[in-house]
Amino acid sequence: MSVREYTEKKVFHYIEEHCMIVPHDRIVAGISGGADSVCLFYLLLEYAKKVPLSLAVVHVNHGIRAEAEEDAGYVEMLCGQEGVPFFLTNGDVHRRALEEKCSVEDMGRRVRYEAFRQTAEQLGGAVTAVAHNSNDNAETMLFHLFRGSGLKGLGGIAPVRNGESGKIIRPILCLERAEVEAYLRERGIAWCTDETNNGDAYCRNRIRHNILPYAEQEIVQGAVRHMCQTAGMLRETEDYLEQQTLQALGQCVIDDEKIEEKKRYVMDLELFQRFHEVLQKRMLLTLLKKVSPGGKDISMVHIQDAMSLTRKEGSHSIHLPYGIVVWRQYGRMIIERRGEVTDVPLWDREPVMVPSGERGMDFPFVCNLGNGLKVEFAFIFRQKGQKVPENQYTKWFDYDKIEEPLVIRSRKTGDFLTIADGTGRMRHKSVKDYMITEKIPRQFRNEIPMIAAGNHILWLVGWRISEYFKVEENTKHVLQVKLLQNV
Question: How would DSSP label each residue in 421-468?
Answer without folding.
Answer: -SSS-EEEEEHHHHHHHTT--GGGTTTS-EEEETTEEEEETTS-B-GG
